[in-house]
């Protein structure tokens, strides 16, 4: 798939930020790969892929090498040079590399084993970081990192085979019912969640339905089907209409607020194909 002519300006705009953080490829000189949002290394790679850039393009090959350069032998990714390494950070790095085509790489196989080893008792993934203090709600996993882990695992060949992933799917389906903010980072299902955000960056209805549609455990569940119906009610002529986008991306053509998105609609069509399949 090649970048459509109407989105070439978006590619140029994203590439224009590659030195903003002091290093190359949207990173800092000391390899902070999530610094400078929404123009960080991990995010910009996904934007370019959404726009249709091929993973073997030099800039994306170089970005993959940069991400792998912070891989640790135990499977974690140190996307910041100091401090703790949190599961959400490893999940994000693994997700990006999987989208770049490295799902079968031996290093990522180690990462997948690590993620399964640290899966929390409720089926999700959580970080031992309590920015909002501690309470009963923080005893749950964090829904969005759990969704990110599942997005990575769908490239591993384990989506329909690993029972541990079914537990993660069930955790997320249960959140559709619970809705309240849970996990140390307080992810809830409320007004902002229900707004279609694109490109995928935050915990929201569109990404929730998209990732879960790859898992058989979800596809026939009433909670998933309800979420899908809500998403379908927000489409226009079968197209995804962007309801929310981070302001710094608002000028890009592929994700204009209030307008249909071509690349986003392709993701929606994948959902429909997954459900039918």
What would you note in describing this structure?
- This is Prenyltransferase.
- InterPro entries: Terpenoid_cyclase/PrenylTrfase.
- By secondary structure, the chain is mainly α.
- The protein is built from twelve helices and no strands.
- It is globular.
**Shape label:** globular
Radius of gyration: 18 Å
Question: Which range best describes the helical content: under 10%, 10-25%, 25-40%, 40-55%, 55-70% or over 70%?
Answer: 40-55%
Mean pLDDT: 96
**Helix segment count?**
12
Series of H and E elements: HHHHHHHHHHHH
The fraction of residues in strands falls at under 5%
Low-confidence stretches: none
Protein name: Prenyltransferase
Organism: Diplocloster agilis
Brief write-up:
This protein is mainly α and 277 residues long. Helix content is 45%, strand content 0%. Helix 6 packs antiparallel against helix 7.
């Amino acid at each position: 798939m090649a970048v459509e002519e109407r989105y070439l300006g978006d590619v140029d705009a994203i590439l224009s930020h590659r030195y903003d953080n002091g290093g190359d490829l949207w990173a800092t000189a000391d390899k902070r790969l999530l610094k400078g949002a929404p123009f960080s290394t991990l995010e910009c790679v996904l934007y370019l892929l959404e726009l249709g850039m091929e993973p073997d393009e030099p800039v994306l090959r170089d970005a993959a090498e940069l991400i792998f350069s912070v891989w640790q032998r135990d499977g974690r990714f140190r996307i910041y040079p100091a401090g703790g390494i949190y599961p959400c950070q490893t999940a994000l790095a693994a997700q990006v590399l999987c989208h770049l085509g490295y799902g079968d790489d031996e290093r990522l196989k180690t990462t997948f084993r690590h993620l399964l080893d640290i899966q929390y008792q409720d089926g999700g993934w959580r970080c031992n970081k309590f920015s909002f203090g501690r309470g009963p709600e923080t005893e749950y996993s964090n829904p969005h990192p759990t969704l990110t882990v599942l997005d990575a695992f769908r490239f591993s060949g384990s989506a329909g085979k690993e029972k541990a992933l079914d537990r993660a799917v069930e955790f997320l389906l249960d959140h559709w019912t619970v809705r309240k903010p849970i996990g140390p980072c307080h992810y809830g299902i409320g007004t902002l969640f229900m707004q279609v955000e694109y490109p995928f960056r935050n915990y929201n209805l569109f990404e929730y339905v998209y990732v879960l549609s790859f898992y058989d455990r979800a596809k026939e569940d009433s909670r998933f089907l309800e979420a899908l119906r809500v998403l379908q009610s927000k489409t226009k002529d079968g197209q995804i209409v962007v309801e929310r986008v981070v302001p710094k991306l608002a000028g890009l053509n592929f994700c204009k607020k209030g307008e249909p998105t071509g690349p986003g609609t392709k993701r929606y069509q994948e959902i429909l194909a997954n459900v039918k399949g």
